[in-house]
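haha ok so turns out i had the wrong file open the whole time. this is the CORRECT one, sorry everyone. sequence first:
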Amino acid sequence: MVTHVAAEGRGDERGALLAFIEEQRGGVRRALLGLTEEQAASKPSASGLSLSGLLKHVAEVEQSWIARAKQEPPAIQRDQTNWHETFQLVDRETVESQLAYWEKVAAETEAYVRSVPSLDDTFPLPNDPWFPPEGRVSVRWLCLHLIRETARHAGHADIIRESLDGATAYELVAKEQGSSWG
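then structure:
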C-alpha cells in the first residue's frame, strides 16, 4: 500500500487530516484488489456505479479541489456533456492507470496541504449551486471535504465489492497485508 503521509507528520493537524484522507483512499483501492478490468467495470448494484468508475471519480474530484485551492483550472473540465465520463473508464484508461494517476494526485494534495502557510487560508469557489454559499472555504475545510467525499465513495466501493464476490472490507484489509480474515 502506498502511504503518502510521513510518519513524523501524523501528530500535527495537517498530518492527521492527510492521514484520514489516505485512510479513505485505501478503502477504495482495497476494493479493487484481485479484480479483473471487467469485474472492476461491472455494476452489480442498483446504483449503476462500478469500482473502476468510483476510482476515476475520486481521483478527478481530489485533483479538481486541489487545483481550485491553487486557483488553477482542474486537469479535466467537466460539464453536462461529459460528466458521465467521471464514473467510467474511457479510451485507454485502466484501473492501473487510474491508480497511478491517483497516486500522483495524492502526492500533490500532500505537498499543497503541507505548503500553505495556514490551514485557515481560504480560496474562492465558483458561484455554482453545489458549492457552499459562503463563496470561500479554508484549506482545513478542503481537507475535511476530501475525507467526507472519499469516505462516502469508499463505502460505495465496499458494497459494490461485496456484491461482486462477497469480499468484505475486513477480508480485503487482511488480503492487502498478506494474511486472512476469520
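Helices lie at 13-31, 37-41, 51-69, 95-115, 139-165, 169-176.
again sry for the mixup
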